[in-house]
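User: For my dataset I need records formatted as: sequence, then structure tokens, nothing else. Please produce one.
Assistant:
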Amino acid sequence: MAKERVLLLDTTLRDGEQSAGIGMTGVEKMEIARQLQKMQVDIIEAGFAASSPGDFESLSNIAKEIEGPIIASLARAVADDVDQAARAVEHSKRPRIHVFLSSSEIHQMHQLRKNREEVMEMAVRSVERAKGYCDDVEFSPMDATRTNPEYLFHMLEEVIKAGATTINIPDTVGYAIPSATGFGQLLKDVQANVKGIEDVVLSVHCHNDLGLAVANSLIAVEFGARQVEGCINGIGERAGNASIEEIIMGLDTRKDHFGIEINADTTQIYSASRMVSRITGMAVQANKAIVGENAFRHASGIHQDGVLKNRSTYEVMQPERVGVPGNTLVLGKLSGRAGLQSRLEDLGYTLSREDLAKVFESFKVLADKKREVTDRDLEILMDEEKRTATEPISYTLAHVQFTGGDQGIPTATVKLIGPDGESITDACTGNGPVDAVCNAIDRAIGTESKLVDFNVQAVTEGIDSQGTVTIRIEKDGRHYTGRGADTDIIVASAKAYLSAVNRQLASDEESDVPALGSTPD
């Protein structure tokens, strides 16, 4: 008997972008969309068309280029949102409009400030309008897990009559408990009490406020959900969404338990994780399941002994299954282009002759600083090359120098190359090296921002380790994230801060979405 299939909806480009401090450019969103296409997810929720002209444009571009996955746009249950969503995805061969509306009493009372009858009418009317544009319509009753069950069942029944083809049950605030009597029972009740539910796809969208998003998603599959929504690395609003790579590998590794099929190419997971981390500036914690630095590393002597004898003793899946590079080839300053190209291809990078020439120059600079260049070094190098190629660039860093210490006044001197190729040099003091560097950059450019977050991570081993710095700045209530890597942490900090400042300078001043339950699920 053929196994049932679970559809995977990735919302990294929509709900993932709602992570505090994240703002992706259209080019970056397209890069992630292409990787999700390689990963063979079933649906890409590529944005929220009505949220801004920029989001509309990037969503439309993705709909035009990306083939294979369904391309969806989120829309509030208002006419203009639905209309904009339809226009944004109209060029896709497989378009979807995803309508959401709060269903819980607490949301209706305090956020929508409408009564149940008004909300019900909005839900039905918006689904009918979406159905007029395309056959594939998803509906989400936001905060479903805190909604009166009888009202929820009635709303779902009405939107199915109106044409919804996917019914999504969002655990919007991560409130559900993953058990047969918790989230599982709600799904059973939906299937038992909603007329027409058997003719649509039942979906779940779980948040991680209590750290239960993946567990709730997996138990939902046991209780009949045939679409699961999540984000790469579990990014998203507040504590994030269900981590889609953990869902994928849970279903893939435990096929014996779930008895279902998925379409994903699991070998693309690691690349997707690193790409999203690079673009968003949100580092992946070392002990993160599936994609963390330590996910397949063994420190205990007992564990090492077991793994050397048979990897399955302490690994329930092979690292190659999720695309983690298994080759430990080390390159150095004597390595040539052919060796570099071969190793990059092993790591999944395909470069033109021109791009290889640029990367080779950067590789040689790094190799002069480090005795050995590892796979992780190469990944960081490629991240830096892609970041500088895709993010808005007004100023580039030519040189940074720091003097000071225990006895001296911390002073940084920076040399920048401006938009017109002009050289700008300035210096400034600070209460430490990073503060001095940031002040010097601000003074050279004539900007002023507040540093709200500074994170440094050693991402390769040894005393000559490369460090990645992530910086978040605030200007007029808006946040901008920058990232930089170097063997010198001061230089990496300067790169990261300048990256954030460039984003600030390039940002448009679009207004926020008008409040009408405006925070999506």
